[in-house]
Amino acid sequence: MKPWFVYLIECADGSLYTGVAVDVDKRYAEHAAGKGARYTRSHPPARLLASFPHPDRSSALKAEYAIKQLSAGEKRALARQGMPET
């Protein structure tokens, strides 16, 4: 079974996008091509900040929700430090 990933993207306007995927590189390419999420179609991605592995989709979605509750500064700190073990 392939792991799932939670990933953080910094958009060209400085905003942050959080998502989940099995293949982060492929998903980032979709965002960059304007075929990803609605948000990244109007806020083009500038770079991938971080990705964090999870054993399954459920745990990735729970982590995504928790990350989305953080402030932008907290998300950037998380990207610099890495995801804590749960």
Widest sheet, order of strands: 2-1-3
Mean pLDDT: 93
Number of strands: 3
Q: Describe the global form.
A: globular
**What is the N-to-C order of secondary-structure elements (H for helix, E for strand)?**
EEHHEHH
Percentage of residues in DSSP E strands: 25-35%
Treating each run of at least 4 consecutive H or I residues as one helix, how many helices?
Answer: 4
Report the helical percentage: 40-55%
- Helix and strand content put the structural class at alpha+beta
Taking the sheet with the most strands, its summary is: 3 strands, antiparallel
Give the distance, in angstroms, between the N- and C-terminal Cα atoms.
20 Å
Rounded to an integer in angstroms, the radius of gyration calculated over CA atoms is: 12 Å
**Which parts are unreliable, with pLDDT below 50 for 5 consecutive residues or more?**
none
Question: Could you explain how this protein is built, in words?
Answer:
The structure is a single chain. By secondary structure, the protein is of the alpha+beta class. The chain is built from 4 helices and 3 strands; from the N terminus they run ββααβαα. Strands 2-1-3 form a 3-stranded antiparallel sheet, sandwiched between helices. A hairpin with a 4-residue loop joins β1 and β2.
